[in-house]
Amino acid sequence: MASTEDNAGTPLLSVEDLRVYFHGDDTVSRAVDGIDFTVGPRETVCLVGESGCGKTVSALAVLGLIPTPPGRIVSGRIVFAGTDLAKMEEEELRKIRGNRIAMVFQEPLTSLNPVFTIEDQISEAIRIHHPMSEEALRRRCVELLGDVGISSPEDRLSDYPHQLSGGQRQRVMIAMALACDPELIIADEPTTALDVTVQSQILMLFSSIQLRRSMSILYITHDLGVVAGVADRVYVMYAGIIVEQAGTVQLFGSAKHPYTQGLLASLPSRSRRGQRLYSIPGSVPNPARKPSGCPFHPRCGHAIASCRTEYPPMCDYGQGHFARCPVLFESAGRKVPR
Amino acid sequence: MKDRPNTETPILQVSGLKKYFPVRRGFFQRISGWIHAVDGVDLSVPPGETLGLVGESGCGKSTVARTVLRLLDPEAGSIRFDGEEISDLTEAELKPVRRKMQIVFQDPYGSLNPRMTVGQSIAEGLRAFGIRSAAKRQSRTAELLEMVGLSADSAERFPHEFSGGQRQRVGIARALSVEPELVICDEPISALDVSIQAQIINLLKDLQERLGLSYLFISHDLNVVGYLCDRVAVMYAGKIMEEAPAMALFEDPRHPYTRKLLSAIPEPDPSRKSRAAEALQGEPEAEPRPEAAPEGCPFLSACEDRDASCEHLEDALYPVAEGHLVRCPKASGKVDSA
Ligand SMILES: Nc1ncnc2c1ncn2[C@@H]1O[C@H](COP(=O)(O)OP(=O)(O)OP(=O)(O)O)[C@@H](O)[C@H]1O
Ligand SMILES: Nc1ncnc2c1ncn2[C@@H]1O[C@H](COP(=O)(O)OP(=O)(O)O)[C@@H](O)[C@H]1O
Ligand code: SF4
Ligand SMILES: [Mg+2]
Ligand SMILES: [Mg+2]
To answer: Any CB–CB contact under 8 A between B136 and chain A?
Structure first.
């Protein structure tokens, strides 16, 4: 497991005060509204939150892929291995994207080109950044397919995407992401379309690849079960901000933000049989009409008057555990930073 | 046949159910084989209870649902609804039965007509149910919407104006409009966010208590099944591999496939990376291939406990405890493990 010291050193990726807004006809949708996160060397970090909270937009911003217009990076530094990607020209970014930072998306069938073979697609991913002989390319393809657990890879080279199962297609996507030996993989809901057994195989695959190559993973999901299965550290997003960050075991063991607590309490499980499931009242706010102060206040059972007006500071519980709720911080007998 | 504490006539009793789909190949689209999507399934849902049907993608769960509703015609087998054999009824004879069996789908958006208001969608069912007066239909629609936690004025709105969770409520209201006895839920919450899932699960439980509904609950999510279901049937490649009371299935799973499925439930586990390394070593892609009509156990090629006897298996479920059945003589102790 990546140790916290690794991360205390120089993170591989460090995102500071990132804001991404989308401009509509007469509305501004603050999709990502001032987030900070880091990914250390060899670390798997999860960004978790419900649909629309800004996970994908955060990932696209790191990759310089925000559609502009309507989107715009309003502020923020995105420091990758010492350089600020937010300041980089598109041409330079292209050398990093797919090469030093790779990505895997949710639906492998739409991301794979249906009319090219598996070999064509993996070769292409390598060739863009590292030209080499046809023979070397083929050897590399076979090696990569083997690495991602595809049996008899030689026979699979000439297959088309539709000839593979959902799980195999996602393995091919991961092979393509690994093609250039990236330092960071950003995976946006890569197992959401897969069923439990295939999902757990893919999660295992990520962990084992990481062991063999020294690599960091930013893993995006809305599924707390997946977080439990894959993450070293977790950031919980709500309405465009990060409300809690912690090591995985700490987050599941002693969540400090009312939203995280609510999510965990609403998970069905055998041990809750016969009890009514908790459900967080209300619904996720529209990003164009976000509540003032703490964006969670209309749904929060702990809210006090100041929650409606004051943006809550990040409160430090020690050992890398932070939560953006001064009310619970104070009731734990701690002094809120000013 | 099966030992079960509930001796009332089951609301749904399926036995020996088979549904095959043709595989067509070549220019003339000749039938070159058959997919055994459902291959001799026995199920029974006692009144007022919930039977969970679990298994990985493509194993035949939705085909069971559609065949039971007679949306597909079975190749063989018996389907008894409330004691009455319905597998050979004509369309006209089916009409009164259809009202008592309803289905709720995974994708509430795809299953609602986008050009009809929610009120019109629900009223359609009421008309089919024989409620002739428009005023009566209107007041019943309002009642149904309120029953599923939506305001009565939602009737005027169109499906796209609702969130995913709200659309799922509309789907449930529509299913309830004809006062069914059995509701088949095919992945009813898989497409929803965590905090919404809890609301829908609570709703399903409340409605069961108030209306005495029986559910056939199809899901990938073993945590939900463990929370909600009284009994669980595990399906693999068109066959039921194990059926048991929910607690027995989770605490004392007997079939090797059930054990594999349960081990795929993710949990927070800091030692996962060390285990990941071993797990990947040459793991074959084990996916059910319903096309190959097997003589032996369908799970044979992926099973760690197999021996020569598994290649010639009687097509039977063996009792291992009260109401607990397993399709594996070794797991049931019927065969001396040599
Ligand atoms: N209309 C059809 N024509 C041909 N094959 C079909 C048809 N419907 C289903 N099948 C096949 O039957 C098998 C079972 O499909 P089914 O939809 O019942 O799976 P499932 O268990 O519901 O899967 P999921 O969890 O992905 O919903 C699959 O191999 C599928 O490809
Ligand atoms: N191209 C776009 N144009 C306008 N709004 C967008 C666009 N992409 C995303 N958004 C908005 O930004 C918010 C965050 O979206 P996203 O990051 O995709 O959420 P998720 O957390 O589900 O990945 C949402 O409200 C979404 O509607
Ligand atoms: S800051 Fe206030 S509203 Fe926000 S989570 Fe804490 S108590 Fe609730
Ligand atoms: Mg997304
Ligand atoms: Mg299905």
So the answer is: no
